[in-house]
Amino acid sequence: MEKSLRFPFSNAKRIRQNHSQAWQDLYVLSMLGGKTNGRYLEVGANVASFHSNTCLLNTAFDWQGISLEYDPSCLQSWIKERPDADFVIADALTLDYAQALPRWFGEENKRIDYLQLDIDPSFNTLQVLKKLPLDTYRFSVITFETDAYSGDHRARNESRELLRSHGYQLVAPDLCVMYAVVSPNPIPFEDWWVDPQGVDAAKIEELLRLPHSPLMPQNVLFRD
Fold first, then answer.
1. How far apart, in whole angstroms, are the C-alpha atoms of residue 135 and residue 137?
2. Exposed/middle/buried for residue 222 (C-beta within 10 Å: 0-12, 13-18, 19+)
3. What does the radius of gyration of the chain's CA atoms come to, in whole angstroms?
4. How many CB atoms sit inside 10 A of residue 210's CB?
5. Which residues contact residue 141 at a Cβ distance below 8 angstroms, ignoring those fewer than 6 apart?
6. pTM of the predicted model as reported, rounded to 2 decimal places
7. 217 and which of 23, 48, 49, 222 could share a cystine (Cβ 3.0–4.6 Å)?
8. CA torsion, points 223, 116, 175, 153, in degrees to nearest 10?
9. For residue 100, what are the CA distances in angstroms to 9, 65, 68, 159, 173?
10. Each residue of 20-55: pLDDT tens digit?
11. 8 A C-beta contact, residue 149 and residue 190
12. Burial 18-52 (b: 16+ CB within 10 A, else e)
């Protein structure tokens, strides 16, 4: 795998199985050079491994973080598959993140390596973003599920305005996947962001040069 990656990292050999729906875990590792012992905040965790964006980070690269999920029926999968992970059953829309983040991640280090924002509907995901203390905490890599294919563009448009105002760079806008239930064509469902303070500028510049019609995960992560 390492040789085919757009941004190779030496410990890619640790990867035995990809868990994310659209290689979001590989995107995080590619942007951060295969970082180990990273930290994540996962909003909308669902089950422990299937389509999980943090399972690979947690189990193969020794990352730790907080995984938030509203549905208590997901708990059993975490007990069985990732018993040492910090899985929190909570309503992400009602949390006070200014108080919770210092409790979860400590007072001193305000840098969190990966932020996943993915709850339904996407307008609720936007509300969580608005509640985060973006003036005091920085996230090196962000994946924000917009579900733009639905025709409701409020979450996509407002999240872009907010994140750009805080200095984040959108490197993969309207990322697409194939989902035959919705359309025979690729559908835009997510935006991928980076913090220029936490990701190498050369990587950002290369991604910004990619064609966007449509932009698929493999275009971002692998060379032709």
1. 6
2. middle
3. 16
4. 12
5. 27, 28, 31, 32, 113, 114, 115, 192, 193, 194, 195, 198, 199
6. 0.97
7. 23
8. -170
9. 33, 12, 12, 22, 29
10. 999 999 999 999 999 999 999 999 999 999 999 999
11. no
12. ebbbbbbbbbbbbbbebbeebbbbbbbbbbbbeeb
Work out the number of other CB atoms within 10 angstroms of the CB of residue 194: 25
Q: How far out from the chain centre does Cα 57 lie?
A: 11
Summarised one tens digit per residue, pLDDT across range 94-135 is 999 999 999 999 999 999 999 999 999 999 999 999 999 999
Listed residue (116, 24, 19) closest to 66, CA to CA? 116
